[in-house]
Amino acid sequence: MTNTEIYSQAGDAENRDVLRSMLRGFQCRCPRCGEGAIFKSYLEVNDHCPVCKLALFHQRADDAAPYFVIFIVGHIIIGSMLFVDSTWHPAVWLQTLFWIPLTIILSLLLLPRIKGAIIGLQWANRMHGFDGGTDSAS
Ligand SMILES: [Zn+2]
Question: Nearest-CA neighbor of 94 among 75, 81, 107?
């Protein structure tokens, strides 16, 4: 028996493409319809999608988003900083004025997007209650 047959028997045969769901989440949009907003504020997740009524309260992004943001921003900033420092040797005060604000801005921009992508991943893989049984609030 394939997974599709199992989900059909459970009344949940919808296609949940992982990449598409994560991209929609990265755009801070509902992983199912791609239109409704995931967040009601900066990082606070809506209980349900305002468009398709997908229950989003199942999400358990927890500390994964900050972990990935630190990992990504750290690699971008440290790599760039080492390259700039070894190539042009700018003054320390100049580097401080440039790298610290860039780190903060990049982290704040990425945090909700990474959290949305994680929620999309969880929905696509039917994790944490996203198994279809209680997806719609109708
Ligand atoms: Zn939706």
Answer: 81
